[in-house]
């Protein structure tokens, strides 16, 4: 977190020395941004290849928390590491593409150039900080914080209320609640 702030402030200091109205400077910043996004996509592609190559069929059971502000109940999930990693890769890719689209819209419609320069570095850094890249690219073992299921990144959540649960009691409660809900739906 602190490293991110230092990095952002460092980039801003460099940008202050540049003429952000100069079309050539803007072109270089755009090129840097597109290059960083291509690097991100390439990293995700390599991760996808490694997931398929490893084909890890280790069973993973956990309870997915209910979505906030809904009346959904937490649901039990039974999958394997390969499918879990695939799903997390899809989420990461969707997030990266959405962020890139929004940022380009801000740049093109509102002429914001600083965010492009900042995201040129931060997007690649964010990828390497993700659990999926730490395991499949950096070769770290899936232990501790990297143990599946990974915690949901949410800077506004306090505690573990919105995190997957892996304890047996939580899984049994969720399975029982699902059975009761299914039985109730059949009766209706």
Automatic annotation (TrEMBL):
Which keywords does this Swiss-Prot/TrEMBL entry list? Membrane, Transmembrane, Transmembrane helix
Protein name stated in the entry: Inorganic phosphate transport protein PHO88
PANTHER family linked? SRP-INDEPENDENT TARGETING PROTEIN 3
Q: Which domain of life is it from?
A: Eukaryota
List compositional bias (Basic and acidic residues) regions by residue number.
Answer: 169-188
State any GO BP term from the record: protein targeting to ER
Q: Which residues cross the membrane?
A: 26-47, 92-112
Would I find Transcription regulation among this entry's keywords?
no
Q: GO cellular component terms?
A: endoplasmic reticulum; mitochondrion
| Residue ranges of the region described as Disordered | 146-188
